Amino acid sequence: MEARELAVGGAWAFAPEVHRDDRGLFVSPFEADAFTAAVGVELFPVAQASTSVSRQGVARGVHYARTRPGCAKYVHCPRGRVLDIVVDLRVGSPTFGKWDSVELAGFAAVYLPAGLGHAFVALEPDTTVCYLLSRGYEPADELAVSLLDPALDLPVPADAVLSDRDRAAPTLAEALAADLLPHH
C-alpha cells in the first residue's frame, strides 16, 4: 500500500496493490497496518459503510458534519473514476480554505479526518464510490459548502450535475459568517 499526504492537513491518499491473474483480481482497499504507519493513528471505529453510484458529470459535495466529533471518512472508488476533492473547512486550521484533489480509480482511496469537506466529480459512467464513516448519518448535522464557490475555485466543470441541496449550498464565506463550519 502506497500512502501520500495531501496538501490539506491530515488528509492522505492511498494506492493499494492489486493482485491480478487469469481469474481476475484481488485487492484490499484498506489495510490497518499501512494506514496506521502513514497517518500515525488507528482508523476510527466504523459506524457506517455507504456507497454511491453516479453517472458521468455528476458532482457531489462539498459535504461535511459540523458538530463534534464530526465525521471522518475513508473513501475509495472500486468502479469508474472520480476527481476526489478535499477542502479544509476547520476554522483555525493552518490550511483553512485550502483544497487538494486526487483521482481515485482502481481502488485508490483517500482519508479525511473530521472537519474536512469532501466532494467528487464522476469522470466515467456508473462510477461507484464507497465510504467508511466514523459516525452514522444525522441529517441535522450534515451540511455543505458550494462546489461552485468562486473563492474556492474548485476543479468542478460549470456544467456538472448537482443536487438541489448542493446547488443551494452557501459559499465558504457565507458558511463562516453564519458560524456553520467546524473548528480546528
Automatic annotation (TrEMBL):
| Annotated signal sequence range | none
* InterPro entries documented for this protein: RmlC-like, RmlC-like_jellyroll, RmlC_Cupin_sf
User: Which domain of life does this protein belong to?
Assistant: Bacteria
Do you know which Pfam families this protein is assigned to? dTDP_sugar_isom
Q: Which Gene3D superfamilies does the entry mention? A: Jelly Rolls
Family, per entry: Belongs to the dTDP-4-dehydrorhamnose 3,5-epimerase family.
| PANTHER family attached to this UniProt entry | DTDP-6-DEOXY-D-GLUCOSE-3,5 EPIMERASE (PTHR21047), THYMIDINE DIPHOSPHO-4-KETO-RHAMNOSE 3,5-EPIMERASE (PTHR21047:SF2)
Spell out the protein name for this chain. Answer: dTDP-4-dehydrorhamnose 3,5-epimerase family protein
Q: Tell me the organism.
A: Actinokineospora soli
* High-level lineage: Bacteria, Bacillati, Actinomycetota, Actinomycetes, Pseudonocardiales
